[in-house]
TrEMBL record, chain A:
Pfam families: ABC_tran
UniProt cross-references to PROSITE patterns, sorted A to Z: ABC_TRANSPORTER_1, ABC_TRANSPORTER_2
Statement: the UniProt record of this protein carries the keyword Transport: yes
Provenance organism: Hufsiella ginkgonis
Alphabetic keyword roster: ATP-binding, Nucleotide-binding, Transport
ABC transporter domain mapped to chain residues: 6-236
Protein name stated in the entry: ATP-binding cassette domain-containing protein
């Protein structure tokens, strides 16, 4: 195993008295795709926010390429790309204006931004919409722009939070392919999602957290040996919801 | 970039700073402008919003020149600066959150390699540019006027005094923010801001209507501000004293000199306090508005078993059952009742118009032609028919509510009214009609009636009844012609088309009012009219509630 690009040591985080993350430990090697899953409110997005340097106030230690995150936030942000879940975007801008803005904040050259953005937009089929304001865009179109804005600076680590939401089937296939090719080139991908079937197929390793703790960690094969058939059933078993069938029955009883 | 070396020393990345500012200002330019929302065409991209906003502020500035001319220079400038300060503070409070505190920054800018000082500086500069634009547009007309009348020295003094006022206003706004954040939660803060916007609209409207009138009617030349003790602690007086001392040395007074000096020192002291002590905590609080604090934990109400099955007997649902027989109508009633109190955009658009009624009334009746009407109990008023104007003005409330009721930012949620198999959209809109009448018009009319009874005495009771139903008749006709959409089912757009129909409806209330006025000398005619009006209302409302999908322009999507 190569030197880990992300090392998380005893990571903890509390809001007031409520402990959101407890003692998270995780090593990620370059070129790996980590599927990061867990029920709502388990602490997924808090982990992500800490990892990309949005939350500075945490316990424990995070090393990115061997450098501590706390002391090198700005440098580390240069090597991370982030695609947030709720497509927050300046929708009065055009995709080109937006990507130019983002690229410049990343310290890129204007001509390079233009060249890359045009190519990427073209391949997503957004060439004709390049100079239209995004307030008329559909969710899928916005998501494509978000994806491009997350990787336009060619980051080493890419953090994706539900990157497929709103995309049509063709775009989904394409994005999945992009993700696995990026990983082959040695990029590290941190993939958060609720869609178990996608995580199952895409990820090299799966990390399952619940109530702020890692409760399972390994390749899909490893998890399967211990727990169940599909990632979905493993998830249900480990997060303590085995009786989902009963709940569904009780749900339907309401018609009685 | 002028301050490049300074910024670099502070650790600011000037390249990033420029990019952020460029984009922020570009976005300001494309944001639809509040006051212009009605006029701007739907499909066309909005541009140059800030120019437009500046134009409106400049218009206000022109109006404010009136104030400068009132009484002696000290008084005139005090009034002008008070207005200036109020304008500045009100606009800043409402703009601060929407323009300057953008939640999306957390997801778009902060994950990028932008250091804190760059980000903070970009916000400060953004605010500065914003304030400066306002300062220029409100102050420029006054500045030109002063230069013409008092010469260049006066112009410079004027410039200094409006800058001092601006700085002081920023301090005041900061204090307001801190106070509100201290006593309320971030979520309530957003509500507070929308009420503030409502207040701003009312204030600006009243200012436009009433100010020119007052200024021509009152004799202010004899007033000497310095004779009032309270004036000494009123900041605009300080700033005005500064101006007065410099450009009118012939009226020199020690008190003015002292206040003038205070007026120059205080704003700088306060702005220093803001930067040094208030700003840091302020930023932290504001990011709490945007951050995790804005996700309130859903309140867990554990009602189990039989209690959960029975509908809680709330005031609104009882009311709806009392007024509407049909369940669909009840649903329309409750939906309208709840959503009108919970959608901020509805409140911001509708509530200001409620204030128009008293303002117009004061404008026409008390500030009308001739003098000696300053006493509201003077016989000229109590023997006239001013109450008719007052009561019919309340139809304005209906007009605004009904013209906004079908619009919402969340209009897509209305799909549920289209997908459900009820076949009587008329029932939903009639429930809606009952709800808005009961919620807005009736209380408003009651207040107006009590006021009317107080001034004119019980003789007007039958008039009140007649005009109440006349206005309701007008409301139904308005609803039949204009409200062809389900409540909250349309995006906020321009009210194009149907201009003629709209005009005709306006004419209805005019005719009804005039007829009432013509009849008002015969009591029996009023009484008969009232009965007739009630019948007419009943018939029309019945017709209205029977509408089917064909009568509605009920296209979804």
């Amino acid at each position: 195993m190569t030197v880990p690009i992300i090392q998380i040591r005893n990571l903890g985080k509390s809001y007031g008295t409520k402990q959101v993350l407890k003692n998270i430990n995780l090593d990620v090697s370059p070129g790996q795709i980590i599927g990061y899953i867990g029920p709502n409110g388990a602490g997924k997005s808090t982990t992500v926010k800490i990892l990309i340097g949005l939350i500075a106030d945490f316990e424990g230690e995070i090393l990115i390429s061997g450098k501590p995150l706390r002391e090198n936030v700005i440098d580390i942000k240069r090597t991370i790309g982030y695609v947030p879940e709720n497509a927050e975007i300046y929708e009065v801008l055009t995709p080109m204006e937006y990507l130019d803005f983002v690229g410049k904040l990343q310290g890129m050259d204007e001509s390079l931004i233009r060249q890359r953005a045009t190519k990427m937009l073209e391949n997503f089929g957004l060439r004709p919409n390049m100079d239209q304001r995004m307030d008329t865009f559909s969710k899928g179109m916005r998501q494509k722009v978000m994806l491009i804005s997350g990787i336009i600076h060619n980051p080493q680590i890419i953090v994706l939070d539900e990157p497929l939401s709103g995309l049509d089937a063709n775009a989904v296939i394409m994005v999945k392919e992009i993700i696995s090719r990026l990983a082959k080139e040695g990029k590290t991908i941190f993939y958060c999602s609720h869609m178990m079937d996608v995580v199952e197929k895409v990820s090299d390793r799966i990390v399952l957290i619940n109530n702020g703790e890692i409760i399972a960690h390994g390749t899909f094969e490893e998890l399967k040996q211990n727990s169940g058939q599909s990632l979905e059933s493993i998830f249900a078993r480990l997060t303590g919801k085995e009786d989902i069938g009963d709940s569904a029955g009780a749900f339907l009883d309401a018609f009685e | 970039m002028l301050f490049k070396p300074l910024f670099t020393k502070m650790g600011v990345d000037t390249q990033q700073l420029r990019v952020i500012l460029e984009v922020k200002l570009l976005m300001d330019d494309r944001r639809p402008y509040n006051q212009m929302r009605r006029a701007h065409k739907q499909k066309k991209d909005t541009k140059n919003t800030s120019l437009l906003a500046m134009f409106f502020l400049a218009l206000m500035g022109c109006f404010m020149i009136f104030l400068l001319t009132m009484g002696n220079p000290l008084l005139g400038h005090t009034l002008y600066l008070s207005m200036f300060m109020i304008m500045m503070a009100l606009t800043l409070v409402s703009d601060f959150t929407s323009v300057l505190i953008d939640v999306r920054d957390n997801f778009i800018i902060l994950p990028r390699p932008v250091n804190d000082s760059t980000f903070t500086t970009s916000r400060i500069l953004h605010i500065t540019v914003h304030v400066f634009k306002m300062l220029i547009s409100i102050g420029l007309p006054g500045l030109i006027y002063v230069v013409i009348t008092d010469g260049p020295l006066g112009g410079i003094a004027f410039f200094v005094e409006i800058i001092a006022t601006t700085l002081f206003s920023i301090f005041v706004v900061n204090m307001i923010y801190l106070l509100v954040l201290k006593v309320s939660s971030p979520e309530k803060f957003k509500n507070f801001i929308s009420y503030f916007q409502i207040f701003v609209s009312i204030f600006v409207f009243a200012g436009y209507q009433v100010l020119p009138r007052i200024s021509t009617r009152m004799d202010l030349h004899g007033i000497n501000l310095l004779a009032y003790k309270l004036a000494y602690v009123y900041p605009p007086v300080w700033f005005a004293s500064f101006y007065d001392t410099i450009s009118h040395p012939e009226t020199f007074a020690v008190a003015k000199l002292v206040m003038g000096v205070i007026g120059i020192i205080v704003p700088f002291v306060t702005i220093f306090i803001v930067v040094r002590y208030l700003a840091p905590g302020f930023n932290r609080k504001l990011s709490a508005i945007a951050g995790s604090g804005s996700e309130p934990e859903p309140q867990l109400v554990t009602t189990t078993g039989a209690a959960a099955v029975k509908e809680p007997a709330t005031f609104v649902s009882n009311l709806s059952k009392f007024l509407c027989k049909d369940p669909v109508e009840q649903a329309g009633f409750k939906l309208t009742w709840w959503l009108t109190s919970r959608y901020r955009d509805f409140k911001v658009k509708v509530y200001p118009s409620f204030a128009y009624v008293p303002v117009y009334f004061v404008y026409y009746v008390f500030l009308g032609k001739g003098s000696g009407r300053n006493d509201p109990r003077s016989p000229e008023i109590t023997e006239g028919q001013g109450y008719l104007l007052l009561t019919y003005l309340t139809s304005f409330v209906i007009l605004t509510v009904l013209s906004q009721i079908s619009q919402s930012e969340k209009y897509k949620a209305a799909w549920v009214m289209f997908s459900t198999p009820h076949n009587r959209p008329g029932k939903i809109v009639s429930g809606m009609f009952k709800a808005v009448m009961l919620k807005y018009f009736v209380p408003f009319y009651l207040v107006v009636s009590i006021f009317g009874l107080f001034l004119w005495g019980p003789v007007i009771i039958n008039d009140l009844v007649l005009s109440f139903f006349n206005i309701l008749v007008y409301g139904v006709i308005l609803a039949i012609i204009n409200v062809t959409y389900l409540p909250f089912s349309q995006p906020a757009v321009t009210e194009g088309g149907k201009t003629f129909a709209r005009f005709l409806v306006m004419f209805v209330i005019f005719i009804l009012g005039m007829a009432h006025y013509a009849l008002s000398r015969w009591e029996w005619a009023i009484n008969t009219g009232a009965v007739f009006s009630i019948l007419l209302f009943w018939v029309l409302f019945h017709y209205f509630s029977k509408r089917d999908w064909k009568a509605m322009e009920a296209d979804y999507g």
